[in-house]
Amino acid sequence: MLDRVSPTITSLLNARLQGHSLPAGLYTREDVFEADIDVFFRKHWICVGLECDVPEPGDATVIDIGASSLILLRDDDGAIRVMHNVCRHRGSRLLDAGTTIVSRLVCPYHQWTYELSGELVYAPHMGLDFDKECRSLKQIAFRSIGGLIYVCLSDEPPADINRLEEVMSKRLAPYEVGNAKVAHQCDVIEHGNWKLTLENNRECYHCSANHPELCVSFVDLDFGFDPESLSPEDKAQAEEHLALYAERTASWEREGYPSEAVEQLVDCATNFRTQRLIISGAGESQTPDATAACSKLLGTMTRKDLGDTHLWGHNSWKHFMGDHAVVSIVIPLSAGKTLVRTKWLVHKDAVEGIDYDLDKLTSVWLATTEQDADLVSRSQAGVADPAYVPGPYSPFSETNLEKFATWYVDRMRANGY
C-alpha cells in the first residue's frame, strides 16, 4: 500500500454507481495509477510472459512493471526462473530491457557475478569473511500454467491462483504453449488508462462497427445482445447460433476437450474467464479468411475445428487455436498510457514461408490492436473531459464490464483504499 491512503481515492471508489462506468479520477489521476500498480500489479498474480520466450538455457528477457524490473530466464538445468533485476551489492540493474543470452548474470557496475540460478559466486574485494550465501538474487513467486508465466511480487500471493491452474492446465495441454515458438511480437502504446484497455477487451458491443477483420472469424453475438432490438430474421439467426453453441460445446466436451465457460470474476483475487468459442466462417482460425495460417498445428493438436480457447485475466487476454495462439499482455506505463504486448505463437518446428505466411498469421490482430488503440485513446480523452459523467453499461453486452468494475472497487477496498 502507499504510505498514505488518499481520501480522494476512497471518495472516488465510494462514488462509483452500480451498473455504470467508473468515476473519471479512477482513470486519470496519477495517485490512482500508483495505487493500481501497488494493488493490481504487485499484490495480485499477473501474466508477464511465456516459457517459450526463453526456449534455451541462458535465454533471458526483462519485463518492467512500474518501478520493478523482472528477469525471466531459463537456467543451466532448463528450469524457468524469475528474479528481481537488482544487484545485491548496491542495487544496479543487471540486464537492460529486452531479450539477451547470458552464461552468468554479471553486474556491469562492480562485476558481482551470479549463476543463472541466482546464486552469488563472485564479489571482488569484499574480504575473505564475506558471506556470499545470503546475497543471492531475490526470487519472485511464479507459476507456469500451461506454459504461461504468472508472477506475484507480493510476499503473500493470493491462493486462488490454484483455481486458474486447475482449469487451464488441462485446457492448454494439447497446445503445448511452453514448447511453441514466438513467430512475431508487436508492442503498441495505447494512450489510455490500463482499465480502459481491459474494459475495451471485455466487450464486443463495439466489434461489428470497428473490427471488420476480426469479425470474419469472431462472433460478436457470443458476448451478449438485446433480443428485443433484433429484427425477426436476426433474432432467428441468433437463436440458431445459440443452439449451435450448445450442440458444439457438448460435442467438444464429450470428445475430451473442456469447453464450458468458467468464470472467476467477482468475490476473488485472481480474476479470469475462459471458454472455447466457435470460430465463424471457415471455422479454423482468426485469419483474414478464417482458415488456418499454419499447416503445422500447435503441440499435439490434430484438428483445426476445435474453435478458440480464450482466456482473460486482469492484465492479459489470449486465444488458442489449432494452428496458432495469440497472447496479449497489458503493462501500465502511466495514468494515461498503457503498453499492449502481443505475441503470435506457432509450432516450434514451423518455418516461416513454408509452414506459415507471417502476414496471414498476424494481420487480423495487428489491425484489431491498432483499432482498439484508437478507441482507447478516444475513451481516455472523453473521461478526462469535464463533461464526462459515468454512463450506464448495457445489461446485455457489457455485463463483464460491470463485473470488472465491481471487482476493481472490491480489491481496492480490500487493500485499504
UniProtKB/TrEMBL annotation:
Transmembrane segments: none annotated. One of its GO terms (molecular function) is iron ion binding. Residues 45-151 form the Rieske domain. Signal peptide: none annotated. InterPro entries: Rieske_2Fe-2S (IPR017941), Rieske_2Fe-2S_sf (IPR036922), Ring_hydroxy_dOase_asu_C_dom (IPR015879), Rng_hydr_dOase-A (IPR001663). Its cofactor is Fe cation. Keywords: 2Fe-2S, Dioxygenase, Iron, Iron-sulfur, Metal-binding, Oxidoreductase. Pfam families: Rieske (PF00355), Ring_hydroxyl_A (PF00848). SUPFAM superfamilies: Bet v1-like, ISP domain. PROSITE patterns: RIESKE. The keyword Oxidoreductase applies. This is Aromatic ring-hydroxylating dioxygenase subunit alpha. It comes from Oryzicola mucosus.
